[in-house]
Amino acid sequence: MSEPNSDNPFSLSRRSFLKKFGASAAAAATTQVESVAAELEKINSEKVYGPDKVPITLQVNGKPLKLELEPRVTLLDALRNYSNLTGSKEVCDRATCGACTVLVDDVPIYSCSKLAIEAQGAKITTIEGLAQNGKLSPVQQAFIDQDALMCGYCTPGFVMSVTSLLKKNPHPTADQVRHACAGNLCRCGTYPRVLQAAMKASGVAVNSPTEMISYAKLA
Ligand code: FES
Ligand code: FES
User: For 204-215, what is each residue's pLDDT tens digit?
Assistant: First the structure.
């Protein structure tokens, strides 16, 4: 085998290459082992809750809601079955219909797919928290004025999605409304009127669902 050229800094013998490669591989492996060990230590130091009931405090509609729940209880279940907040509806119970939509820190989420224990510390708003001093919110009123419901089971979820949108974007386009409500299903098919109500709540004058459909196509 030819000897390495000592004048060339990139020249290596097979032996010195293997030695250097082995040293860096060992250093990388040590770093990996250390980070896995740190991760395991973190996991082991985290407190395990349950399976028995534990005290939970949720901030719902500006008030603390103190409950004793098993950690497996969802936020929707906590609201509907462990307190009297039955406005959020349970339909699919698997994150597909949006009937259970509530706002967590102003972001719409499916409450059937979040554990109540995980929602502690966040600002939760349900449909019951929208009316102020006995007066419906503009979105709620618009849904009534535009007759944007049939059976009404999906309506709280749509109202929460539209409310969240208008907080971020007070004057959305029809397409933006449709996008915001993409996670909400209405089996009665009141979509044009939902759109109409959302546009009305945002200050756009619309007279009929038919006009709304054409508006949506143009937007
Ligand atoms: S009940 Fe939560 S998404 Fe359907
Ligand atoms: S109004 Fe009946 S499911 Fe929407």
Answer: 877 665 666 655
Mean pLDDT, residues 60-86 = 98
Is the C-beta atom of 109 inside 6 A of ligand 1? no
Burial class (CB in 10 A: 0-12, 13-18, 19+), 37: exposed
**Which ranges in the chain belong to alpha helices (H)?**
14-45, 75-81, 138-145, 155-168, 174-180, 191-201, 209-218
Q: If we measure between CA atoms, which residue out of 57, 54, 85, 95 comes closest to residue 72?
A: 54
b/e map 16-33, b = 16+ CB within 10 Å: eeeeeeeeeeeeeeeeee
Closest ligand by atom to 152 CA: 2
Query: At which residue do the structure tokens 């109202």 appear?
Result: 159
Atom number of ligand 1 nearest to Cα 112? 2
In whole angstroms, what is the distance from residue 55 CA to residue 45 CA?
A: 20
161 contacts 145 by C-beta, under 8 angstroms: no
| Whole-number pLDDT of residue 30 | 75
Question: pTM to 2 decimals?
Answer: 0.78
Question: Of 35-49, 58-72, 77-91, 171-185, which range is least confident?
Answer: 35-49
Using CA atoms, how far residue 18 sits from 1, 13, 29, in Å, is 15, 9, 16
Question: Does 186 sit in the ligand 2 pocket, CB within 6 Å?
Answer: yes
Q: Phi/psi of residue 56, each to 5°? A: -135, 140
Q: How many CB atoms lie within 10 A of CB 5?
A: 10
